[in-house]
């Protein structure tokens, strides 16, 4: 056999062995048991994955994961009705239509001022994302919001969305940076 052909066959063999036996690659990862059990107190029986809001689960890798979704808040938001709720359009009557309000902010500030600061938003996540679990111990974060001549209602709505939809202990601080506004 030529030396070059022999080298190609050796490399192909090593590649196949790696695909089969490396733990996070190839066939081995498909057969590795990945069971998810609810964490339980001593004396309690664990049970297979049945996601419930706020419960903690342990993956076989030893890392504890949690369902961070606030299902009750999501259900309450789905029940809300009103102008601008669920991201729906705000209906204007002819008397309220004024194109000059777009010049200052690039959107209709009159409409923005009449939408609730804590408005509901539709749940647009993919169905698989609704079952996603995240690590139990997440680092907190600082949220920085730069703005320039922003309409106050839209800025306050942003802050309300952050505080209403994020667990308190995950927010270290919210910093608003006025980028040289002239009003």
TrEMBL record:
The chain crosses the membrane at residues 12-31. Gene3D superfamilies: Spore Coat Polysaccharide Biosynthesis Protein SpsA, Chain A (3.90.550.10). Pfam families: Glycos_transf_2. GO terms for biological process: protein O-linked glycosylation. Residues 142-181 form the Glycosyltransferase 2-like domain. One of its GO terms (molecular function) is polypeptide N-acetylgalactosaminyltransferase activity. Keywords: Disulfide bond, Membrane, Transmembrane, Transmembrane helix. InterPro entries: Glyco_trans_2-like (IPR001173), Nucleotide-diphossugar_trans (IPR029044). One of its GO terms (cellular component) is Golgi apparatus. This is Glycosyltransferase 2-like domain-containing protein. It comes from Culter alburnus.
């Amino acid at each position: 056999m030529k030396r070059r052909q022999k080298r190609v066959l050796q490399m192909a063999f090593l590649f196949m062995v790696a695909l089969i036996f490396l733990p996070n690659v190839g066939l081995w990862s498909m057969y590795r048991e990945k069971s998810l059990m609810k964490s339980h107190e001593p004396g309690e029986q664990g049970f297979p994955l049945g996601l419930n809001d706020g419960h903690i689960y342990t993956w076989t890798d030893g890392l504890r994961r949690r369902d961070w979704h606030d299902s009750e808040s999501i259900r309450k938001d789905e029940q809300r009705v009103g102008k601008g709720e669920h991201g729906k359009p705000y209906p204007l009557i002819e008397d309220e239509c004024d194109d000059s309000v777009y010049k200052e902010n690039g959107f209709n500030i009159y409409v923005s001022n009449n939408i609730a600061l804590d408005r509901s938003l539709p749940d647009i996540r993919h169905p698989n994302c609704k079952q996603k679990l995240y690590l139990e111990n997440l680092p907190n974060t600082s949220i920085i919001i730069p703005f320039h001549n922003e309409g106050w209602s839209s800025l306050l709505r942003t802050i309300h969305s952050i505080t209403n939809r994020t667990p308190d202990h995950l927010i270290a601080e919210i910093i608003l940076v006025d980028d040289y506004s002239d009003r």
